[in-house]
Amino acid sequence: MANLRDLKKDLNFVLGDIIDAVYVHEALNPKTDATKSEAIIDDAIATFDELIAKVNDRKVENRKAHIKTVRTELQDKATALVERINAL
Fold first, then answer.
1. Which long-range contacts does 25-28 make (Cβ < 8 Å, 24+ apart)?
2. Which of 32, 34, 39, 3 has its CA nearest to residue 18?
3. CA-to-CA distance for 64 and 31, rounded, in angstroms?
4. How does pLDDT run along the chain (88 residues), one tens digit per residue?
5. Cα–Cα distance measured from residue 25 to residue 3, given in angstroms and rounded to the nearest whole number
6. What pLDDT score does 2 carry?
């Protein structure tokens, strides 16, 4: 199932890029408080774990609709995390 494989790759790449962006921010601004940026990293990891668990859940009735909701949830949560990074 190529679509499912692509979704898992998207989860990994998108949330990994968000974590990388936080590390870049920390490197460029070493004198700022790191607690907010660490919270963003923790939230990105928690989001990854949550969404991977949803992707791997095989007990849903309509698998195609479930995967589509996971994809939109990824977009929403990634957008929220990027907005938090921009607010730093």
1. 25/85, 25/88
2. 39
3. 47
4. 458 888 999 999 999 999 999 999 999 988 888 889 999 999 999 999 999 999 998 888 888 888 899 999 999 999 999 999 998 8
5. 33
6. 53
